[in-house]
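Q: What residues go here?
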């Protein structure tokens, strides 16, 4: 547009246009003056900006404020300019860095008499009524009801899509390397894993200060041994990760799946193509610019908040993992006993003789029971213990083997008989147990050292104390050396020095056992607190019909018991421990794992005996909805 065109469109001479613009229009009629002004305004004739401002005419100039660190600024500017050009508006760009505030940039824009503004704010909007001809491009999470004219996407949504894809492909333990401004991606990933009852701990993340930090620390810290997939905050990070993987002989995607939480054509050429997330910047900028012009031209009211969904661009960097890859490996160190179960009206008192209603002889022992519990729930159970060279020993050995327990760590003792337990059950299913340790007592540090390799490959060690003190100490030492988490059941103990418990990850006593470790009149909670002070990470007290109690640095929580009618409570705690270990090793949240374990134990006590009474995954699965519902209720109560 030039002065000739203005004159032509207004049907006047060039000198008439010039006179109008220069305020020398005394000899020009008012209708002609108005006609010239209308043409200038409608066609956004820029050289007359000053004059237009004086006359209160619209400038046809649109301000675009973008953040300097916005990786999409180029795409944004190009798109907005395209839209403006088509509708004969001009673009005034302001790149905002740390030294300039948004308010200052807006003031500058207003000085230039812009007709409207597009503001790309990182994270927040600054909606003010006086800037009603302003639209915002944002990646903010939440908006006030009064906020309007916002076009946004959420980085957390990209995280959610990534998490869903990884979960579908069977990835449970994921690494993430991000910069601080990409933290929302992590939030989305965590949300999805939490919704699936998988704990946040499974995301092995590193939020770096800058790329240098990522190169030095981020990559190798996140690609831990059990991580099967890695999420990179941006394309540069992806490059670092791929380079690190190449140097370390890690193949993408066979050994490690990789997703970039951003997208660029370069991802097509890295490895055999890296899956990325494309943000809807073009569409968003196009819609926002068009919408702003409609506002200016009064074709619409200011009203909307419009959300845009990022798109997953699938390439070849995510491989499938089988459920079997995650089979939990556990080492179980404890007793194996032949259980002699006597059922009567009540547990005999001093001097009383009773007639038994029923007698059952079956394989038991806390270690053996826990190993079977793990195996039945689909975990890999490695038993370490001692049996006698007798018929009980052979029966116990065969029974464990039949349940799929790995027995390479079980040895036969030349001198002692196999362990035995004499169990009385009353009409309410409650029991008392007398244990003869026999060969269990001869399990020693040497035997444990012979099978250290089993500890090395196990995530958890289920340790119970019907063995010698020496073996308990040696097992704890082995766990600490191999990084195996310890779940300790402190049963049949006269006393267990507190110092032995330092570093135990999960201590699971019943109330009586807790009282043996810490005698005195303190409450349950105070005793648990004391144990935490002594270096135990989590204290879980099983309370029978009353449920369970958890104490750790984060929680002080009671769990209701599962709704089952007990006929034989023997082994309920063993079942609880196995289920807890399996669920935790599947990376489920601790609260969820405890609820799941309560149901597994609840099912066990509805049946006689222990090992045969332990449920498999499908049986506990029948109660999945109830378990989920209780978990969500408890989590809501915790966060509410
Ligand atoms: O926890 C139950 C077990 O305790 C029984 O099987 C018995 O053998 C004793 O070890």
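A:
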């Amino acid at each position: 547009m030039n002065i000739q065109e203005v004159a032509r469109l207004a049907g006047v001479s060039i000198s008439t246009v010039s006179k109008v613009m220069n305020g020398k229009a005394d000899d020009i009629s008012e209708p002609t003056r108005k006609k010239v002004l209308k043409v200038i305004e409608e066609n956004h004739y820029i050289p007359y900006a000053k004059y237009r401002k004086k006359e209160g005419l619209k400038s046809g100039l649109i301000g675009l404020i973008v953040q300097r660190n916005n990786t999409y600024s180029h795409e944004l500017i190009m798109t907005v300019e395209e839209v403006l050009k088509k509708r004969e508006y001009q673009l005034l760009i302001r790149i905002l860095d740390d030294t300039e505030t948004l308010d200052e940039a807006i003031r500058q824009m207003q000085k230039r008499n812009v007709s409207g503004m597009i503001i790309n704010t990182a994270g927040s909007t600054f909606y003010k009524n006086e800037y009603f001809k302003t639209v915002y491009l944002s990646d903010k999470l939440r908006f006030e009801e009064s906020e309007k004219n916002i076009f946004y996407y959420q980085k957390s949504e990209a995280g959610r899509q990534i998490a869903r894809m990884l979960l579908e492909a069977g990835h449970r333990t994921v690494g993430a390397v991000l910069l601080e401004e990409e933290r929302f991606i992590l939030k989305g990933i965590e949300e999805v894993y939490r919704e699936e009852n998988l704990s946040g701990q499974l995301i092995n993340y590193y939020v770096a200060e800058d790329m240098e930090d990522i190169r030095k620390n981020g990559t190798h810290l996140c690609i831990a041994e059990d991580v099967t997939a890695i999420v990179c905050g941006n394309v540069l990070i992806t490059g670092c990760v791929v380079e690190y993987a190449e140097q370390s002989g890690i193949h993408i995607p066979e050994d490690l799946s990789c997703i970039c939480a951003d997208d660029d054509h370069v991802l097509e050429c890295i490895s055999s193509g890296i899956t990325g997330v494309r943000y809807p910047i073009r569409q968003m900028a196009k819609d926002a610019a068009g919408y702003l012009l409609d506002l200016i031209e009064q074709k619409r009211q200011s009203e909307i908040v419009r959300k845009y969904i990022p798109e997953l661009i699938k390439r070849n960097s995510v491989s499938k993992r089988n459920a079997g890859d995650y089979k939990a490996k556990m080492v179980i160190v404890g007793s194996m006993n032949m259980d002699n179960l006597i059922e009567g009206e009540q547990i005999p008192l001093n001097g009383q003789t009773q007639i038994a209603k029923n007698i059952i002889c079956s394989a038991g022992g806390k270690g053996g029971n826990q190993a079977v519990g793990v195996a039945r729930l689909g975990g890999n159970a490695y038993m370490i213990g001692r049996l006698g060279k007798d018929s009980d020993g052979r029966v116990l050995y065969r029974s464990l083997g039949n349940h799929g327990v790995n027995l390479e760590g079980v040895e036969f003792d030349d001198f002692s008989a196999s362990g035995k337990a004499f169990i009385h059950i009353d009409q309410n299913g409650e029991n008392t147990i007398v244990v003869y340790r026999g060969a269990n007592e001869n399990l020693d540090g040497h035997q444990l050292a012979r099978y250290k390799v089993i500890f090395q490959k196990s995530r958890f060690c289920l340790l119970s104390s019907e063995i010698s003190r020496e073996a308990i100490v040696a097992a704890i030492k082995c766990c600490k050396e191999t990084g195996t988490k310890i779940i300790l059941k402190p049963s049949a103990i006269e006393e267990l020095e507190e110092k032995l418990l330092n570093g135990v990850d999960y201590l699971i006593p019943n109330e009586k056992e807790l009282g043996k470790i810490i005698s005195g009149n303190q409450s349950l909670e105070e005793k648990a607190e004391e144990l935490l002070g002594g270096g135990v990470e989590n204290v879980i007290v099983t309370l029978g019909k009353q449920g369970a109690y958890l104490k750790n640095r984060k929680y002080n929580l009671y769990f209701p018991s599962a709704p089952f009618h007990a006929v034989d409570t023997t082994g309920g705690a063993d079942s609880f421990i196995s289920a807890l270990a399996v669920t935790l090793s599947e990376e489920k949240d601790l609260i969820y794992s405890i609820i799941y374990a309560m149901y597994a134990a609840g099912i066990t006590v509805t049946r006689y005996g222990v090992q045969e009474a332990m449920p498999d995954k499908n049986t506990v699965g029948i109660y999945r909805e109830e378990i989920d519902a209780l978990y969500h209720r408890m989590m809501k109560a915790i966060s509410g």
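A: Context that may help when evaluating the design: Residues 335, 337, 339, 364-366, 369, 421, 433, 435, 466, 570-571, 574, 610 surround alpha-D-ribofuranose (CB under 6 Å). The longest strand covers residues 380-388.
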